[in-house]
């Protein structure tokens, strides 16, 4: 498995890494979110259908030195939660990284906020918070937690949705949640562009608006073709009511 050390992502597909009887997932950053979700979901479905493979746990990594928990971070955490489902959250490790970038005081303050606010619903359902301190011992502590929970035979929500209920990725809770975020973000972008043009029109902004409207039409067609159930408010927003 290739491990990147530059700012550019080198991950193009998922791969399994065997650690004793444990299989882990490589990171999949650098691709569009829907493609990432599809790759992960299909890989997890194959794991579910393979009786020789046990999903020991899932690790979610967060840069503790980040000054803000951005909208993108919230969206990704929500998608992760929807992918796992409440029943499997005791298999989740919420890992924090980059502890050397800021002072201990700042990092601990960030960690405390993550625990009390953003990660609170996951922790209440059994997820464990763990610090990665750039050492082999620290990495091993993550694996030790997963190995201790190997006996917990709970599938992730998206595995059950796809392998048992035969849903497509867009029909899963994670897929629908991501689609809603896409529509809302694109609609907000269109509104901002329209306001900019109303104040002072220019060719570049008008071009961006045309492109954004085309993307919205594309999303509308995808929703129609896939027959994905979405909240009434969202369907109204894209003109499907």
From TrEMBL:
Domain of life: Eukaryota
InterPro entries given in the database record: P-loop_NTPase
Protein name as it appears in the record: Uncharacterized protein
Gene source species: Gymnopilus junonius (Spectacular rustgill mushroom)
